[in-house]
Structure of Zinc ABC transporter ATP-binding protein ZnuC:
Amino acid sequence: MSAALIRLQDVTVTYAGQNVLDTIELSVEPGQIVTLIGPNGAGKTTLVKAVLGLLKPTSGSVWRKPKLRVGYMPQKLHVDPTLPLSVLRFLRLVPGVDRAQALEALKEVGAEKVIDSPVQSVSGGEMQRVLLARALLRKPELLVLDEPVQGVDVAGQSELYALITRLRDRHGCGVLMVSHDLHLVMSTTDQVVCLNRHVCCSGHPEQVSSDPAFVELFGKNAQSLAIYHHHHDHAHDLHGSVVSENTPATSAHVHGEGCKHG
């Protein structure tokens, strides 16, 4: 038996007679980053709800380490524009958190300068860091991150993924992350689980990107996520600029586009 933080076995979730998730097997261990990818409607959000205990599977089991501490980062936060809520007050909604602890968490994610700013005034990238700081304040053994780079530009996305890796290294926590940017998470994840209501394939990112099931789901469907490899004499960096041919493949040779169908 592995030292998993959480383990899903044969998890099926049914709505209105349709399987939204079908016999899912998934585990996350301490220090491991597992990334869920899949098109819209693949069941990623439903799976996250099952992991968090917000949804009970129709069948199968979800096992969690006893007294498991989970830090959750949602895709985005909707705050009424008229609500007088500073970043500090938002972070202090976590029980027992004082200003010093909030500031320390913000420093860890590189967002300490916004501590007294209204939540509504911070940029998209800053807000994602604030949400990550909030998750860290729970001293998590498992971080669950739902599209953590939502609303962040490409350069910021790469840095945010690198930050998540540094936090994993520093705290030794497991990370379950939802993303559709395989080209960006290639170098920052240990395992990819390709989901389309069932697990199509799973493994190391480079293995998954060439798996026939992945290619069938993503590479050949123009309405879905297109992953392709360059085979000419130059490459592109994360900003689309041409770079020398010896640039590492994890950042230069694999490109993707966001999901386009519902």
Confidence is low (pLDDT under 50) at residues 220-262.
